[in-house]
Amino acid sequence: MNDLFFHECRAAGLVFKTSDDWFKWLTDNSYDIKKPVAEHEGFQFNIKDICINPHVIEYAVEGADNWGWKVMTANTQFGWIWGYSIQKGKHGYDSPAGYPSRYDTLSIFYGNESEAVQDALTSSSETWRRVLEPRTPTSFSGQPRRSEQTSFIRNRNFLNDEDMVRQQIAFLMLIVAATAGVIVLSTIADAVRQWKTLGNEEKFEGCFLVALLLLATITAAVIGILL
């Protein structure tokens, strides 16, 4: 059975048995965990065993803004590995192309890139359906395209999460404005009926209350309209 240790970089063949070993490497390298420390078949890897220049196949969702996913592959001394990235508007999910841990009994290395791509597409599709399908537009681009030749198709009419929240807040503010308006009218009616019987202090308090309610009504209405 393999001994446990704090961190391993399989790409560079480095093992940090304790946290002190790991922090010493970080200190000696200015905490730059993104720089390449190993290269295999032209693919560069950082100290976290993540490929920083993988092959990328990119899919885009037609008629949507920032909806799509990428499949990434890289070759190692043990075989091919994969990763993927899913984008849904301003949110996303990333699983970079990196070495699996020696303790990971589920992840494997692949004999060729095609096998790695196929498994990556299957996994990313399952994640898309499980997490994103309820919010996914209906049509997708038919063919995969290399990332350097494609970009996401822009459509500013697509309703994203921020737009929905803004509309809900606007609707709520208009309801508040309407409610405050009803209270103002009721307060004014009561004050008119009792005006002659009220003292000067009570008249002042009544006018002040009406002014505050009017201000709240106008403010809520303006916010609701602007949103």
Can you describe what's shown?
The protein is of the alpha+beta class and 227 residues long. 40% of the residues lie in helices and 19% in strands. The chain has 4 helices and 9 strands, in the order ββαββββββαβαα. The strands form 3 sheets. A 5-stranded antiparallel β-sheet has the order 8-7-6-5-9, with helices on one face. A hairpin with a 4-residue loop joins strand 1 and strand 2 (14-16). It is elongated and about 95 Å long. Residues 136-161 have low confidence and may be disordered.
Morphology: elongated
**By helix and strand content, what is the structural category?**
alpha+beta
Distance between the first and last residues' Cα: 61 Å
Q: Largest sheet, described in full? A: 5 strands, antiparallel
**Content of β-strand:** 15-25%
Task: Give the overall pLDDT as a whole number.
Answer: 75
- Biggest sheet strand order reads 8-7-6-5-9
The radius of gyration is 30 Å
What's the tally of helices? 4
The run of helices and strands is: EEHEEEEEEHEHH
